[in-house]
Amino acid sequence: MGSDWKSVTLKDAAKFLSGGTPPKTNPDYWDGDIPWISAKSMYGSRFYDSELKLTEAGLRKGSRLAPKDATLLLVRGSMLHQRIPVGITTREVAFNQDVKAIIPNKNFLPLYFYYCFAGREHEFLCKVENTGIGAGKLDTNVLHKIEFFCPPLQEQKAIAHILGSLDDKIELNRKINKTLESMAQALFKSWFVDFDPVIDNALAAGNPIPDVFAERAEQRRSIKQQKMEGLAAKTTSNIMQTHFPSEFEYTEEMGWIPKGWGIAKLNDLLEVKYGKDHKKLEEAIIPVYGSGGLMRLVNKSLYLGESILIPR
Predict the structure, then answer these.
(1) Mean pLDDT score, 266-286
(2) Which pTM was predicted?
């Protein structure tokens, strides 16, 4: 480390901005096009999108914008006991009151500044305080006293380039994984919620379609007329022909289901053994087909006796 690497406190290196949350009861403030960053959306190292988005009215009412290239740091929340969510913005985004936007001065390159946080997660974890309600807190006064090294800008650029290249690859892989997960969820819904393969087989065989699936059947007819192309379509077509029936049957308990599929109790199919951490099962995600098949949240005291749909 050269003698030209200066040490500065965070208070002298940057300014802090606080965010906020507009009233969620007012629809005029939500479902806009401004990403609103909260703990829920602070995964990865690049922040540019979120499930919840603000309108311009919502931004003015209770939040604020962080500029591009700002470092966003979660400073309050239960997540702080396990990890320190931090990232850099790649566009203007709004953020809530549990997040700080930290804007470095001209002596720091924004990307290098972000890595000053990302590379010292263990140190930040040691500074997390308990709020008494299970949440963690990073006190602003404590953050102000943290010291960062400030090398010359050319050295910051070289460091940021190396680390940024690795992060870019990680971010690309994360996007690919997200796309694949969305594709898998869409396929699951098509097969086991909407029963598209059964509808397609029934249409091909000329079998009757229950009224509850009439609209979906019309959509499938349209797709067939457009002659689906590509490997995915061919693969899906083969699976439809081989593994799915071509008729529906009505059951009192679950309504219309693919013919030949059975109904069973979950406790007839598996044995559950509870360990020390069994309380977590109270909010376990169990894949239950139920009335049409959506995966949903079930309670450990109820799900063992629930009926599920079993393909034969």
Answers:
(1) 60
(2) 0.63
